[in-house]
Design a protein that fits this description.
By secondary structure, this protein is an alpha+beta fold. The chain has one domain: Jelly Rolls (Sandwich). The protein is about 15% helix and about 30% strand. The protein is built from three helices and 13 strands. It has helices spanning about 30-40, 65-75, 80-90, and strands spanning about 20, 45-50, 55-60, 105-110, 115-120, 120-125, 130-140, 155, 165-170, 175-180, 185, 200-210, 225. Strands 1, 2, 3, 4, 6, 7, 10 and 12 form an eight-stranded antiparallel beta sheet that branches.
Length: about 230
């Protein structure tokens, strides 16, 4: 693959199925990607977060430079998606489609946060019909990230009341992949960063076709659920 550098990874199960992969992208592309992310000024965003649940968050799904476009094609392409299927045991992941809900670049600015939450379980796509959301991929692109900035991705064990189980620093070129359904995550504490800096990630979500009209547990599909009291 052109971009992806580290393919030797295995998922761990605590607090839920996930993997943290450092040096995910080959070094020669990092500065090019960072430049293109810098070019995504907030006037090019399509979404500004609800300030009670995802403060100071801007999301971008277009106006990408050439490198970002190529990276999205690779991590949604046959070779990488087949690798994900092999690592997770989830077959039938939709591939070679960059129009599925949620993929893009996210920027969160000073004092911003993302409440702990469970993601929406699926949606109806114009091409494929009803889809199940299965896997999240978050590639952090934060150069010179300092501990005092905060912004750790928090994973929650729902058997331990109101307790964050794992915190993952969003350092440059660190990729986090996790199974989506029912798993609580976020970064609930406000960022403490300079005005000219943001917490940046390249994100993509993987789906399978839904054949039952129900969620993976046989119940009604659920929208995103927010957990304000988990810090």
């Amino acid at each position: 693959m052109k971009f992806v550098n580290n393919l030797d990874f295995e998922f761990c199960s605590e607090p839920f199925q996930h993997v943290v992969i450092d040096d995910f992208i080959k070094n020669e592309y990092i500065d090019l990607l960072l430049k293109e992310i810098d070019d995504l000024t907030i006037d090019k965003s399509y979404y500004y977060g609800n300030q009670n649940i995802e403060k100071n968050k801007y999301a971008f799904k277009s106006n990408f430079g050439e490198m970002i476009q190529e990276l999205f094609k690779e991590i949604n392409g046959d070779e990488f998606v087949s690798l994900l299927e092999n690592k997770t045991g989830i077959n039938g992941l939709i591939r070679n489609n960059l129009e599925l809900s949620g993929a893009g670049v996210h920027k969160i600015f000073d004092k911003g946060f993302l409440c702990m939450h469970k993601d929406f379980e699926g949606y109806t796509d114009a091409k494929y019909g009803l889809l199940d959301r299965r896997i999240n991929l978050l590639l952090y692109m934060n150069k010179d990230w300092k501990e005092e900035y905060g912004g750790e991705l928090c994973l929650y064990d729902d058997t331990k009341l109101h307790k964050v189980t794992k915190k993952i620093v969003p350092m440059l070129n660190r990729c986090v992949i996790f199974l989506t359904p029912g798993n609580i995550h976020g970064h609930p504490n406000p960022l403490n960063i300079p005005e000219n800096k943001s917490r940046q990630s390249i994100t993509t979500y993987y789906y399978t076709k839904n054949e039952t009209g129900k969620n993976l547990n046989g119940n009604e599909m659920q929208p995103v659920s927010w957990f304000y009291n988990i810090k």
